[in-house]
Design brief:
The chain has about 900 residues and is of the alpha+beta class.
Length: about 900
């Protein structure tokens, strides 16, 4: 049976028959049909299970044959006089096409190489007609091209790293072979030899920038197949650098030179082929060149690659787990080989005297416990080091942590090969437990050691509950990493707190220093998402049970084990309470304090919450969340210490804040204005506001009261103030006016109608009925700061709406988002969840709403609640990545909670109807 490549060649021979003397333009349909037929063949072959590299190489072959025939055609049609005087030439593929690997919509780059002799502008040679006639574009090819001599190629290659890389991968398609060989020899002699170190330094710098740009992790939830960590570029980078140092162009050649093992080469090739196949399908699926495997396309790509489980979540888990396994292996393997092949630059700085003396000792290779410590790395003194003493598997990482060293690639590979020693006996060994707990107890330097353990596979073998998280897909929209990677980033975030000297992290650093047993906190972080592998509804509860079992196996005492279990069980609670509950309600603080039990647990949970939140996505952490977390911490700490102290502390803080504001107040302000402001607002307000922010609000109130005395301005017209947080990418608008029914709804509606997306909101009503509402907003189209036009539009619409002169509903309906606010999987919708909670407050009902964010959502929801005669006394609005997680404190018009079941169902129905209308 003929191979795919043989079929392609045979078809080209049979179908691309060019008659001498016929102008190529007359054969356009022939070329178009051929290209369309071959593209369809490759797509069908891919969908039938064709390998990633096979399909890419086949596409390169199709274009080789087509371009060869096209060049023949243009030269057939040229006059004999032009052919006779034409210089030697070669058609050359460069870049990815030069490698002979083209994904379905990848760029096609060619070089027309020619000798300088006989080339004139007045009578250009016939081969240039291939480019100047428009023939390539007429048949549907998008080609990047250049026309150069050998000297110009050398000159271009020495201009920058990308040009040099493209030319070292050059491949002759057709034409003068001797000319092409001369070009390759010139590139090697004049652009490669003597340029090795400069090239590798530039390549590594480019690689560092690329990896940082795309997340510095091979386990991103929306990976970039080409440029991300563990992407195609990592494999290609390795070979480019290996070529400059060892002149090996393929993994096979590196194996032949005994630079890498056949097993390593096989792993690299398998991962690379898988990623190429995924990229092929991504191109076919969206019908254009893209590299990011977004959530919206993952289900379709998975199905077309043979992952056909009827359950969307199981289909995605299987596909993405395979993807992450290959990507992670590719990333770890290339990183290890870069070290082992000495592709990384050596430090050039002169050592200090202490470093010099230590280096002398290290160069001597002193041996401890079967390990050699040489030049900043740990080596195995013998290949029997672990079979003689399995406990050393754990001690290797303890030594590395204590000395600030890394594992030599050879030692890392030896550990991987000896993981069979990690069995039940190893997991029960008290000595191993002691070493592991010692690693976790080194606050500030735990993460590198634990990550190194994970990368060689020891961590998952020693803690099987963590091993099950390896490359596990997280279905929560707000996570950017797989479960295992998220956990490791949590440890890194906690490490970063140690020694932090600048706010806001410095306060957490002080808290971390007070922790007497850091290992409990680190172990809790390590296990906080362990329950996700069980696929249960509440992963915190199942994780708590797993933590109890792990703690018992590690020999923790009952009290410590209880703390560990409590932290895992409550790891979501503090973020939820601080961001979605009224922290001025004593019932909220009391319930949280009862759950946390004591001061030590509170400190541990505060640190865990920060690490977990910032590791989920540091872009979603902001000053508002940070302040809320500290407010909950301080109030709970005060309550645990005693109610009297709590009240005294709060009073002292408010007096101090008032003194700060008084010192900043303009002379035109009166003392009674300050006293009224501090006497008419709840304590929560002063917990969330710094002195400058209180003064800004007080200024709004002052201006508003002045307006009441003015005859020129309408007294009911609100006062607004804008502030643009350029570093955080949102705008803040404060509104001051008299309270009235439906005011919050009107402000929210005016913002939406003005083209602004509401990210968060705070409601404060003074006892004298002056409202101070704050909204955090962004441009609904660009996601950036509010512009002048939107600011002016909002203020006009708000004034008209309050005067009954604007139909907000109609204005909002005209607004359509430029792109979906929530990016789901294809066919997936974020479900709407509505919960009522009465125990959180003595006088009000908390309504928690989770749904996809939509244009006008807050307006419609608050309008529906107002229509049911429900008063909103507090709204905690949280919008993240197109998902709304809002909490409203409600009371009936006459006061009291929403208790009746029928009444709650009526509210649910009204809210669902309002949300459905938005769709």
């Amino acid at each position: 049976m003929r191979t795919l490549f043989e079929k392609i060649k045979a078809d080209a021979e049979a179908r691309l028959v060019i008659a001498p003397g016929v102008p190529p333009a007359h054969e356009l349909e022939l070329f178009r049909r051929y290209l369309k037929r071959e593209n369809h063949r490759l797509k069908m072959h891919h969908r039938a299970g064709g390998g990633g590299r096979e399909v890419c190489q086949a596409r390169a072959l199709v274009l080789d044959l087509l371009l060869t025939k096209l060049l023949v055609a243009v030269e057939y049609a040229a006059p004999a006089s032009r052919l006779a005087s034409s210089p030697r030439r070669a058609l050359v593929a460069v870049g990815g096409y030069g490698r002979g690997e083209l994904n379905p919509f990848s760029d096609v780059d060619i070089l027309l190489l020619h000798e300088a002799k006989g080339f004139t502008r007045s009578q250009p040679p016939p081969f240039l007609d291939l480019l100047t006639s428009g023939l390539l574009w007429d048949i549907g090819l998008k080609v990047g091209h250049s026309v150069r001599t050998i000297d110009v190629c050398v000159e271009e290659a020495n201009k920058d790293m990308q040009s040099k890389t493209a030319l070292i991968e050059a491949r002759r398609i057709t034409g003068d072979e001797a000319l092409f060989d001369q070009m390759r020899a010139a590139i090697l002699a004049r652009c490669v030899k003597g340029h090795e170190n400069d090239y590798m330094t530039a390549r590594l710098a480019d690689q560092a920038v690329r990896r940082a740009k795309f997340g510095n992790s091979a386990c991103m939830q929306e990976p970039n197949i080409k440029n991300g960590c563990g992407g195609l570029r990592d494999y290609q980078n390795l070979l480019w650098m290996a070529f400059f140092k060892y002149r090996g162009r393929t993994t096979g050649e590196l194996v032949a030179q005994e630079l890498i093992t056949a097993r390593e080469a096989g792993g690299l090739e398998e991962a690379y082929d898988f990623l190429l196949r995924v990229r092929n399908e991504l191109h076919y699926h969206v019908n254009r060149p893209v590299d990011v495997l977004t959530r919206s396309v993952q289900p379709g790509v998975a199905h077309n690659l043979g992952y056909t489980d009827r359950s969307l979540s199981r289909r995605l888990e299987a596909f993405m787990r395979d993807y992450y396994v290959h990507s992670r292996n590719l990333y770890l393997s290339t990183r290890t080989l870069e070290q082992r092949l000495a592709l990384l630059p050596q430090p050039k700085r002169l050592p200090t005297l202490r470093q010099f003396l230590r280096r002398r000792r290290e160069l001597a290779g002193y041996v401890l416990d079967g390990f050699k410590f040489v030049d900043g790395q740990i080596h195995a003194a013998s290949n029997r080091i672990f079979s003689d003493q399995p406990r050393r598997l754990m001690r290797a990482f303890r030594y590395a942590q204590q000395r600030g060293l890394t594992l030599h690639p050879g030692l890392a590979q030896l550990i991987r090969s000896q993981l069979g020693l990690v069995g039940p006996q190893f997991r029960r060994d008290p000595h191993v437990h002691e070493t592991f707990v010692g690693i976790l107890n080194e606050r500030g330097s735990v993460a590198p050691a634990v990550r190194a353990m994970h990368e060689v596979g020891l961590l998952g073998r020693y803690l099987p509950s963590f091993g099950k998280l390896t490359c596990l897909v997280q279905h929560e929209f707000y996570h950017q990493f797989t479960t295992d990677e998220h956990t490791l980033v949590c440890l890194e975030k906690l490490d970063q707190l140690s020694g932090a000297q600048k706010p806001p992290l410095s306060a957490y650093a002080e808290l971390l220093q007070k922790v007497e047993r850091p290992y409990v906190l680190y172990l809790a972080l390590l296990l906080h998402d362990a329950g996700k592998a069980a696929s249960t509804r509440n992963h915190a509860d199942s994780g708590s049970r797993i933590a109890l079992a792990v703690g018992k196996r590690l020999g923790l005492d009952a009290a410590t084990n209880h703390t560990l279990s409590l932290l895992v069980a409550s790891h979501l609670e503090m973020a939820m309470v601080s961001q979605r509950r009224d922290l001025e309600d004593p019932a909220v603080i009391s319930a949280f304090a009862a759950q946390i039990e004591n001061q030590e647990n509170l400190n541990l949970l505060t640190l865990l919450t920060l690490a977990d939140s910032t590791a989920t996505s540091d872009k979603l952490w902001n000053g508002f969340k940070d302040t809320s977390l500290w407010t909950l911490h301080h109030k709970t700490r005060a309550l645990l210490a005693g109610v009297t102290e709590f009240i005294q502390l709060e009073s002292k803080q408010r007096d101090s804040l008032a003194a700060e504001v008084r010192a900043l107040m303009p002379a035109t302000f009166q003392e009674d204005e300050l006293q009224a402001h501090f006497g008419c607002l709840p304590a929560r307000y002063f917990q969330l506001r710094a002195a400058k922010e209180v003064l800004a609000d007080l200024t709004l109130v002052h201006c508003f009261m002045q307006r009441q005395l003015s005859e020129e301005e309408p007294p009911l017209k609100p006062i607004t103030a804008w502030h643009h947080e350029r570093d955080r990418g949102y705008s803040l608008v404060r509104v001051c006016t008299w309270d009235r029914h439906g005011l919050f709804t009107t402000i929210a509606g005016a913002l939406t109608a003005a083209g602004l997306n509401i990210l968060s909101a705070e409601i404060f009503t003074r006892e004298d009925w002056i409202v101070l509402d704050t909204f955090y907003v962004a441009d609904a189209t660009t996601g950036g700061l509010a512009n002048r036009e939107e600011v002016e539009r909002f203020e006009r619409i708000l004034h008209e709406a309050l005067a009954g002169e604007a139909d907000l509903g109609e204005l909002i309906r005209r607004r359509k988002p430029a792109q979906p606010l929530y990016a789901p999987h294809a066919g997936e919708r974020l479900p709407t969840v509505i919960r009522f909670e009465n125990p959180s407050s003595d006088t009000r009902t908390v309504l928690d709403l989770e749904t996809e964010d939509r244009v006008g959502l807050l307006y419609s929801v608050s309008q529906a609640l107002s229509g049911l005669n429900l008063d909103i006394s507090l709204a905690r609005i949280c919008t993240e990545r197109g998902a709304a997680m809002d909490s409203f404190y409600l009371s009936e018009a006459g006061g009291g909670q929403v208790v009746d079941g029928a009444r709650q169902e009526k509210v649910r129905a009204a809210l669902r109807a309002a949300i459905q209308k938005l769709d």
